[in-house]
Amino acid sequence: MASHFRTGQARRTATLLFFFLCLISISYAARLPASRQKFEVQKHLNRLNKPAVKTIKSPDGDIIDCVHISHQPAFDHPFLKDHKIQMRPNYHPEGLYDESKVSAKPEERSKPITQLWHLNGRCPEGTIPIRRTKEDDVLRASSVKRYGKKKHRTIPQPRSADPDLINESGHQHAIAYVEGDKYYGAKATINVWEPKIQQPNEFSLSQLWILGGSFGEDLNSIEAGWQVSPDLYGDNNTRLFTYWTSDAYQATGCYNLLCSGFIQINSEIAMGASISPVSAFRNSQYDISILVWKDPKEGNWWMQFGNDYVLGYWPSFLFSYLADSASMIEWGGEVVNSEPDGQHTSTQMGSGHFPEEGFGKSSYFRNIQIVDASNNLKVPKGIGTFTEQSNCYDVQTGSNGDWGHYFYYGGPGKSPNCP
Ligand SMILES: *[C@@H]1O[C@H](CO)[C@@H](O)[C@H](O)[C@H]1NC(C)=O
Ligand SMILES: *[C@@H]1O[C@H](CO)[C@@H](O)[C@H](O)[C@H]1NC(C)=O
Question: Which residues form the Neprosin PEP catalytic domain (predicted)?
Answer without folding.
Answer: 165-419
